[in-house]
Design a protein that fits this description.
Largest sheet: 26 strands, antiparallel
Shape: globular
Structural class: mainly beta
Helix content: under 10%
Number of helices: 6
Radius of gyration: 25 Å
């Protein structure tokens, strides 16, 4: 692959005035004691034109501080999803490769194809070509998370059709030495070992006010609770002694190092390294969820593993009238899984992705005219090694997905009526070359795509924001192996190794209201999404091999609601988020409909949940100047889910709780997840493949924070 000289480009930005990452400002932390009586001002950077208050940002956007996530015991992307209206799991069969959707976008293909959600670690995209997994990041050293719902095609590109998640990490302190960490242990129902989790950080000012280093990391072990039977599903199999007990245990290792250099005022440079290494034995699915067991493994080991490394160099220069930012990054790694398919058979699939990306942009500073222009480039590939082995056949359909793309983008807005009325327009011109390749052939496809966004916001005062928006997004066409494409064609559904893109248009009205006393906030969004070229899975005549085809067009109508209230009871606040989402197919590929007879025009969109909501209560009260009590309780409800297999998964609910005490910078807490020991299922792919909820887990956490 040809890669532009990202470090050289960064050096040029530095030479033009010297440069590095702009450290975002975020005003919200979990307040201690009785100070939590009003909703605090939150500043976000999702618009890429500097900081903006969450209340005044004309988007369907949420912001979660790292401290509030700790109080709720939210530790990773998966546990955050219950706090996002319209969010749902796509595939969750191991801790190494999980996917998610927002507002039903991208539900039809699970982890296959590009992600329907854009993921950014600080300003760096986490992008695995043709496999839409979320970064296996655990929230060890996170300052805040910003979640943007709806397509973000102009600023964040083709990987953000359903939304964007931005994980802002804590930066080195240029003045003070800092050290802290967590230690947690817990017990899960059905497991015969304890879980543990250790993490820590250290920040060192190497040259005061000029150069600082921050290193953080952690290790964790989650005990297994699923038993394994080598034989088929018979009464003798599941009532006798299992061949393996507690087989689905998992490990995580995380490491992050960041060097921050500010050679002069308004100039900074950030070099960063991340590594994620999750592994799991067997998987998160089973034949039964309560009791939890798997069958028919034939004694073949099942496992998943991954090891991702991310390197980035970010430069930022503030010229007063404008800021210039350049981000160069490189991701490489490996991930995959092996699972038994009975009688000694196996299916394994391992990926070895690499992805170079670079973005340079300049935006205005101050004045009624706000503008941003930029360019982006990505060069990635995803070699895949597959093995299907049964008593009748052995196949090795290895292949590679090659993706090279570039984009020019920009947005402009103007403050009318002293900023009370703000029109905005944005465009992104995207061109890509995507190819399927194997040992004998390459099948390239070149595409040009234009995405746009129009927005009109009305802000009559600081307590009310209203906006209407129309925006487009797309997901690049999926690449599949020739074996899959031929197998789908053999069952009568035309297909190919390179499928057409999915495109969408989102129409939305939003309102945010904050009371004068700052104790109650309400945000609501109404939206309609028109989707074209949806891709779906098709079963074939080859055991354990599914292929894909463009299936049809659909639309979804929905409403999001968020409420936060600081009650008259001292130290008590309540929150609610909810989503109703009604998705239907408008037209269906007639060849595919013959295979999937239960999907017709007017039938429900597959794999998406109909609704989700969360109610949470927080308590924060000072006993003395240095001692605080705190607690959180949440109830998370997940609506029913119509699977592409034709199975309707019923709704279910999960309760979580945290309670603790703080003394100065120390914290001791009891944490509990799934108090009611709900098992689900959350997904059903076949009679023997059910994915459930982790059983009730209760533990204790000791934590040391900074001042």
């Amino acid at each position: 692959m040809q890669r532009p000289a990202g470090l050289l480009t960064s050096a040029c930005v530095l030479a033009f005035a010297a440069g590095a990452i702009s450290v975002p400002i975020f005003a919200q932390t979990t307040p201690s004691g009785d100070s939590a009586e009003t909703i605090e001002t939150v500043l976000v950077t999702a618009s890429k034109i500097g900081t903006q208050s969450l209340q005044a940002t004309p988007l369907a956007i949420q912001a979660f501080s790292g401290e509030s996530l700790k109080v709720k015991n939210v530790i990773d992307v998966g546990s955050l999803m219950s706090s996002i209206p319209g969010a749902a799991p796509g595939q969750d069969n191991s801790n190494s490769a999980r996917s998610y959707t927002i507002r039903g976008v991208g539900t039809s293909t699970s982890t296959n194809g590009d992600s329907p959600i854009g993921y950014y670690l600080d300003d760096v995209p986490f992008n695995v070509p043709n496999f839409g997994i979320a970064p296996p990041i655990r929230f060890l050293d996170i300052e805040r998370v910003e979640v943007l719902r709806g397509p973000q095609g102009t600023l964040y590109g083709q990987g953000s059709a359903g939304g964007t998640m931005i994980f802002h990490s804590r930066q080195p302190d240029l003045e003070k030495f800092q050290v802290g960490g967590d230690a947690q242990t817990s017990s899960t129902v059905g497991a015969h070992e304890l879980n543990y989790d250790f993490s820590g950080f250290v920040s060192v000012p190497l040259v005061e006010n000029k150069l600082a280093l921050r290193v953080s990391g952690g290790v964790s072990y989650t005990a297994g609770y699923t038993d394994v039977y080598y034989g088929a599903d018979t009464a003798a199999t599941v009532t006798g002694k299992p061949d393996q007990k507690d087989a689905n245990f998992s490990h995580n290792q995380d490491l992050r190092a960041v060097l921050l250099w500010t050679p002069m005022d308004k100039v900074s440079v950030q070099a960063q390294f991340w590594q994620f290494r999750p592994t799991q034995e067997y998987a998160s699915y089973g034949r039964s969820l309560d009791p939890s067991y798997m069958i028919n493994t034939g004694g073949v080991r099942g496992y998943s593993s991954s090891n991702f490394r991310l390197y980035s160099l970010t430069t930022n220069v503030d010229f007063g009238f404008a800021e210039v930012t350049n981000i160069a990054s490189y991701v490489d790694g490996n991930f995959g899984y092996q699972y038994p398919i009975g009688d000694g058979g196996i299916f394994s699939s391992f990926f070895y992705p690499t992805n170079f990306s670079e973005e340079i942009r300049i935006h205005s500073s101050g004045g009624p005219l706000h503008w941003l222009i930029g360019g982006a480039y990505q060069d990635g590939e995803g070699p895949q090694m597959n093995t299907l082995k049964t008593s009748a056949v052995e196949l090795h359909p290895d292949n590679n997905s090659i993706a090279t793309n570039g984009a020019l983008f920009g947005e402009v807005s103007y403050d009318l009526l002293d900023g009370k009325l703000v029109p905005l327009a944005g465009l992104r011109l995207y061109t890509e070359r995507r190819a399927y390749a194997d040992s004998t052939s390459e099948n390239p496809v070149n595409r040009d795509v234009l995405t746009w966004r129009l927005n009109l916001s009305y802000l009559p005062n600081e307590n009310l924001t209203m906006f209407v928006t129309a925006a487009t997004g797309f997901r690049s066409g999926m690449i599949q192996s020739k074996l899959q494409a031929d197998a789908v064609s053999d069952v009568g559904v035309p297909s190919s190794t390179s499928l057409n893109p999915e495109t969408l248009t989102n129409y939305e009205f939003g309102v945010k209201w904050l009371t004068d006393d700052g104790k109650l906030s309400i945000a609501a969004n109404l939206y309609r999404i028109n989707m074209k070229g949806l891709i779906t899975s098709i079963a074939t005549n080859i055991d354990s091999v599914n292929g894909y085809a463009n299936f049809g067009n659909a639309h979804t109508d929905g409403v999001d609601l968020e409420v936060n209230w600081h009650t008259p009871i001292k130290g008590v606040s309540l929150g609610f988020i909810g989503n109703l989402n009604d998705g239907q197919f408008d037209s269906v590929n007639p060849y595919a409909q013959e295979k999937l007879t239960y999907i017709t025009p007017g039938s429900r969109l597959v794999n998406g949940i109909r609704n989700n909501w969360q109610v949470n209560a927080n308590y924060n009260r000072s006993l003395t100047d240095s001692v605080d009590l705190f607690g959180n309780f949440s109830w998370n409800q997940y609506g029913n889910r119509f699977m592409s297999s034709g199975i309707l998964v019923p709704e279910y609910g999960v309760a979580n709780a945290t309670a603790g005490v703080r003394y100065d910078t120390w914290e001791l807490a009891l944490v509990a997840s799934n108090l009611g020991d709900e098992r689900g299922p959350s997904s059903v792919f076949s009679e023997t493949t059910l994915i459930g909820v982790t059983p009730r887990t209760i533990g204790i956490r000791l934590r040391k924070t900074t001042d």
